[in-house]
Specification:
Radius of gyration: 25 Å
Strand content: over 45%
Helix content: under 10%
Distance between the termini: 27 Å
Length: about 700
């Protein structure tokens, strides 16, 4: 949990490039340093490492921090959170999601992360629609080190990193480095295993005026399928149960398919050129290529004609090409920047199946191709108009074309082509009456196109629009700092999660005319002594749909489809949006434990499985306590760091989120659901040697 005192020293008053907010940019944000990230990212994913930040709720399907993880900021789903790496979007072009399991150990490769809440400063690429995460790998590999991690639930992993080259070429300096990580876990629930590996390569050439940087990032996963969750009744009997791959033989005996798994490989190439025309005028241009290929394999009961079982592979191969270029002119009181972002995305979705008794007879199932173009441009200005006042303005234009052809996994033909164009303006002001006090206010308008899963559910879905109003006050003293912010995120034609998911784990959405998220965010830090500090944050919010219609499918006793019925709800709570989120940390750093002993607390208020506000479909409020301790030994030129961590120290049994599908069968209510249990107390040990 980063202190407000730390934020001031990480970003200048006027930001140089568009991806991040500066000290006086009127956008609520926190910045997490490399040291803080690495202390948290011991065998965990990026969402779990950021869980202590304001308004963040992170969860993990397998319970150990590895495997499938997700995070919500202000209740906003991951697909509406803009995530970028070195200014290039990591969000899937079709689904908007970031699958963190595809880039394991990413938190250990980053030099910093900035979390923006609201519409933020996403000047190019898919805009933030409630939150943004901007990550950087610049200067991430600066020393030779090796790390070994051991943890509960069969978790083991390690990482090695090394600066490989240092020298002079021409009038510049060449540096290169790399890192590799390998991790395994059995997971908490059945079939929650994960075998993941990743690598990072950095090559930089810098002569003071020009800087060329090549970044190569590789990730590969082989993990068990856990996205079905657990029926609530089963959870109460056996919280480690997982129905994935379950089937019965001809004699009724229960079996589990041994390769019920998700498999994916992803490779990123980024070439960046920064050029300084003068002290005031600078540019940055990045070329990106991302290649991904993978499949998930499942045993499906009664897959063929509703009678015969089959094993299926849902596969895809995709490529993403991106050009991003920014230029900024900056003085001590004025910064003007502009840029373009152009991307081309290609993806082939295809499926095959075979009978369990005829594994050599592989048959085609579906084949769907997708093509998506995007072209963006923006202009942004920050001006210290008066001695204590900074004005901020930005205008972004986005144009997109999405084309799909061929049948999908549900048998429907997705011959679809549509073009969208959006204008997204932002205005704001920051007032500093003194060095210790800061007032901010901003207004922004954003638009978001439907995803592939949205269009699969209905080609009639419309883009969604949000008006984001933010205001805050911050105080920063020599030993204490705090801030209070209020926000109002007003949605129009909101693409709302219905609580249902499809076979791939994607949420199914629909448009609803009016909804809002309104809240207050409080955060503070206090350091009364050199060796003792404390920090805390609290978010209180109201998340409502003004009028919501739930549609339920109707079936007879033999499951013949009869049509739909509807239920009307007024002022309904938005699903999976807790009205209270809190976090706190106490840290003490005595000489005998110089990296500190930290006690962490997290509270998440109650949430609903769907948008009806029904108490029988509710995730109860939960809280967790964590403890960590680390010490660094200086042994000549070597640093030996030992770290021990305990998660869920009080051994709470809880589930953190859920989905539900409801229908009417033979005139009676019918429901199936999945809840996602989190692990009981878990221990981790880490040994790091650095030179």
């Amino acid at each position: 949990m980063i202190s407000l005192l730390d934020i001031q020293d990480t970003i200048p008053a006027l930001t140089v490039f568009a991806g991040r907010a500066g000290q006086d940019t009127p956008v609520p944000h926190t910045t997490v340093s490399q040291e803080e990230l690495r202390s948290r990212a011991v065998e965990t994913s990026v969402p779990m490492a950021l869980d202590s930040e304001p308004s963040v709720v992170s969860t993990n399907e397998g319970g150990t921090g590895l495997g499938y993880s997700q995070m919500r900021i202000r209740g906003v789903a991951g697909g509406q959170t803009s995530v970028s790496l070195n200014g290039i979007s990591l969000n899937g072009a079709e689904d908007g999601e970031v699958f963190w399991v595809n880039i394991p150990a990413l938190g250990k490769y980053l030099s910093s992360v900035q979390i923006q809440r609201g519409l933020g400063t996403s000047a190019c690429g898919p805009g933030a629609f409630g939150a943004g995460i901007n990550m950087s790998t610049e200067n991430a590999v600066e020393s030779l080190s090796a790390e070994l991690n051991l943890g509960s639930f069969g978790t083991i992993g390690g990482m090695i990193q090394a600066p490989l080259v240092y020298g002079h070429i021409g009038n510049g300096t060449l540096t290169a480095g790399g890192a590799y990580s390998l991790q395994h876990t059995n997971g908490y629930i059945r079939n929650a295993f994960a075998d993941v590996q990743s690598a990072l390569g950095l090559v930089n050439w810098d002569n003071g005026k020009d800087r060329l940087a090549l970044t190569i990032l590789f990730g590969q996963q082989h993990s068990g399928i856990t996205w079905e969750g657990i029926p609530l009744a089963k959870y109460r009997e056996d919280p480690m149960y997982n129905p994935a791959g379950e089937y019965r033989d001809s004699e009724g005996r229960l079996h589990y398919y041994d390769n019920q798994s998700d498999n994916y490989r992803q490779l990123h190439f980024q070439l960046n050129w920064k050029h300084s025309f003068s002290h005031n005028l600078k540019s940055s241009t990045t070329l990106n290529y991302t290649d991904g290929i993978g499949y998930y394999e499942q045993y499906r009961v009664a897959f063929l004609d509703g009678q015969n079982d089959a094993i299926t592979d849902d596969a895809l191969g995709n490529s993403l090409y991106v050009l991003r270029s920014d230029i900024v002119w900056q003085t001590s009181s004025f910064a003007l920047s502009g840029g373009i972002y152009a991307s081309l995305y290609r993806c082939q979705h295809y499926g095959t199946y075979w009978l369990p008794t005829a594994t050599d007879d592989v048959r085609n199932w579906y084949d769907n191709d997708a093509l998506k173009y995007e072209g963006d441009a923006y202009l942004r200005a920050e001006w210290s108009a008066l001695r204590h006042t900074t004005l901020y303005a930005e205008l972004q234009g986005r144009a997109l074309h999405h084309d799909m052809t061929g049948p999908d996994e549900y048998g429907q033909v997705l011959d679809f082509a549509r073009t969208w164009a959006f204008l997204n303006p932002r205005l704001g002001v920051t007032v500093r009456p003194s060095a210790r006090n800061r007032f901010m206010a901003s207004a922004a308008l954003g638009h978001r196109e439907p995803t592939r899963a949205d269009l699969q559910a209905s080609t009639q879905v419309r883009p969604e629009t949000m008006l984001d109003l933010e205001a805050s006050y911050g105080f920063s003293g020599s030993h204490a700092a705090f801030s209070i912010g209020i926000y109002d995120m007003e949605y129009y034609d909101m693409l709302l999660e219905t609580g249902r998911i499809n076979d791939a784990g994607y949420v199914i959405k629909e448009n609803t005319p009016r909804a809002f998220r309104r809240g207050v965010e409080l955060s503070g830090s206090w350091k009364p002594l050199a060796k003792f500090s404390t920090s805390a944050n609290l978010t209180l919010s109201t998340n409502r749909i003004k009028r919501y219609t739930a549609f339920l499918d109707c079936y007879d006793a033999d499951w013949n489809y009869l049509g739909q019925t509807s239920e009307e709800y007024a002022d309904a709570p938005i699903l999976l949006s807790p009205s209270a989120i809190a976090g706190a940390q106490l840290k003490y750093s005595p000489d005998w434990m110089n990296k500190g002993i930290s006690l962490r607390y997290k509270y998440v208020g109650r949430q609903y499985w769907d948008n009806t506000g029904n108490a029988s479909r509710m995730v109860p409020a939960y809280s967790t306590v964590g403890l960590s301790a680390a010490h660094c030994f200086d042994i000549r030129k070597m640093k030996l760091t030992l770290c021990a961590e305990a998660d869920n120290l009080l051994n709470s049994q809880y589930y953190a989120y859920a989905w539900v599908w409801r229908a009417i069968v033979d005139g009676r209510p019918y429901q199936t659901e999945g809840v996602f249990p989190q692990a009981p107390i878990g221990l981790r040990l880490s040994i790091n040697i650095a030179f």
